[in-house]
Amino acid sequence: MNRLNINQASDEHFARIHRAALVLCGNPWDADDLAQETFLILARQGGDFQGRSSVYTWLYGILLNLERRERRRHGMRRRKLRVLWDNQPQAEDVSPRADAASEVAEWKRSLWALVANLPDGQRQSLVLRFSEGLRYEEIAEILECPLGTVKSRIFHGLGALRRLLNEAGEESRQLPAFPSEDLSHAV
Fold first, then answer.
1. Which string of DSSP letters, residue by residue, matches 107-157?
2. Are 60 and 136 in a shared domain?
3. How many angstroms separate the CA atoms of 116 and 118, rounded?
4. Average pLDDT, the chain
5. Residue partners of 26: CB distance under 8 A and separation at least 6
6. How many whole angstroms separate alpha carbon 167 and alpha carbon 60?
7. What are phi and psi of 119, to 5 degrees?
8. Distance CA 33, CA 38 (A)
9. Predicted TM-score of the model (pTM)
10. Rounded distance, CA 118 to CA 168, Å?
11. What pLDDT does 3 receive?
């Protein structure tokens, strides 16, 4: 692809990028912001796309960089606000839309809430593999790391996820069935 058609790329890939953003951050508001910012970068820097990768892997790379930056930037501030929030009485009218609240509650009950607690490399690798269904080679390209590193991150991420399930007393809760490519790495 010599020239990147920005409108076509947006139409084709927005839903995938938004879904990945939702899995990564766990709430619809931040997911909207991350997905929109990813496509703003596409609009501004689409001419920089070299075509050495597919458009969606390039967009996932942008999304992961944005999400990583936001986690770092807001980590300390969110911890401080959480301490204040937890120590303040809650007003009755400070609730989000019903559908957004149910999305957040559903996410918190899902395995993705546990994945969110993993280190960045493991978390990102698991999201790209199991939420987005990307091949190991595509994940390595997006994360700009060797294929062996991706395999290791997925292996260790799955192990950590199993430990978190055990610690939460949810041993009976099964991890989803993974494609055969992952079975050799997940045992």
1. HHHSHHHHHTTS-HHHHHHHIIIIIS---HHHHHHHHTS-HHHHHHHHHHH
2. no
3. 6
4. 78
5. 104, 107, 108, 112, 113, 116
6. 31
7. -60, 155
8. 9
9. 0.67
10. 15
11. 58
Residue 178 and residue 151 share a domain? yes
pLDDT at residue 92 tops 50: no
Q: Is residue 103 part of a domain?
A: no
- Between CA 123 and CA 127 the distance in angstroms is 6
Q: How far, in Å, CA of 27 to CA of 85, rounded?
A: 18
The answer as to whether 104 is a domain residue is no
pLDDT tens profile 63-83: 999 998 888 877 655 555 555
Q: Is 35 exposed, middle or buried (0-12, 13-18, 19+ CB in 10 A)?
A: buried
pLDDT by residue (tens digit) across 128-171? 998 889 999 999 999 999 999 999 999 999 999 889 888 877 76
Element (H, E) at 38: helix 28-45
Integer Cα distance of 133 and 29 in angstroms: 24
Contact status, residue 113 vs residue 106, Cβ threshold 8 Å: no
Domain of 86, in residue numbers: 1-98
* Beta-carbon contacts of residue 183 (< 8 Å; ≥ 6 apart): none
Judgement on whether residues 92 and 133 belong to the same structural domain of the protein: no
Q: Among residues 73, 98, 123, which one ends one of the domains?
A: 98
